[in-house]
Amino acid sequence: xxxxxxxxxxxxxxxxxxxxxxxxxxxxxxxxxxxxxxxxxxxxxxxxxxxxxxxxxxxxxxxxxxxxxxxxxxxxxxxxx
Length: 81
Hints:
The chain is mostly helical. The chain has two helices and no strands. The protein has helices at about 10-50, 50-70.
């Protein structure tokens, strides 16, 4: 009786895990982009209402969310408008 070769892997399990991981990363990038957008909007509101410390922390949150979205493969959003 032949012994199973440890070097042979089940490719279907590996590709399914890779697809699930890619989908999870895409979802996380989308959420991070959404958080960045909302943080940006709230920072603008805080700035208009003369809340500099709140504005600072919201901009910090925006920068962190943008960075995480880029790390996960999301695309940065142009907020210049």
